[in-house]
Amino acid sequence: MAIVTSKTLIRAVYVTLLAASMAMEAQVTAPAQGNPPPAGVPVPQPVLIDFAPVVNQLQQTTVAMSLDISRLRIEKWKADSTAKRQAQADADSITRNVTTALPTIMDEVRAKPQNLAAAFKLYRNVNALYDVFSGLTVSAGTFGPKSEYAALAGDAEKLDGIRRDIGDKVGSLAAATDTEIARLRTEIASQTPPPAPKKIVIDEEEPKKKPVRKKPVKKPVESKPPDNAATAPTTKGP
Hints:
With about 240 residues, the chain is an all-alpha fold. It has a domain at about 50-175: Four Helix Bundle (Hemerythrin (Met), subunit A) (Up-down Bundle). The N and C termini lie far apart (about 120 Å). It is elongated. The chain contains 7 helices and no strands. Helices cover about 65% and strands about 0% of the residues.
């Protein structure tokens, strides 16, 4: 078996941490390095989830929603000022979402259809959009004319079906992600070489004793006669 280099292991771990989104986007079927699969063994193919149809349907529905909201005459509804202000705030919030935030998320899903984070972001946004839009639809049915309610009710029904479809696809993508992660972990584990055994060195020789350093013996200092003794005059007898 070939020895896997540290660079290969880092690359494999990086692929694992990015989950199956990176693997499925690139349609990775085997690591770039390492041993090829044995002959006759099928290579698992990544499961691809097609978000394009539901994203296109969502775009068409949000265009219709925006148009129907622009036709509302909330100021003429048979409601108090508080209910009208809330309905108008919901209408404005929906319009901002479908014209600014949601198109950006849809473009991200189109560009990265196997990215679980992008798909979940879309699902979360559509769920929040449905909650607000369904509330506005109920208000239109309670305070507004039947024609305005009918238009919003049709949009709400379509949006509900779309969010359920997106939820199913996100669930399928999450399951495929788990399967891909498990496969990559198994593949990495099979390629990782076992750790080298530690060498234990036994030194049977006795440790050498350090030589004892003798302190130098200080020489005694010779005492000198005082200077006045050397220069004193000699006394002669009579």
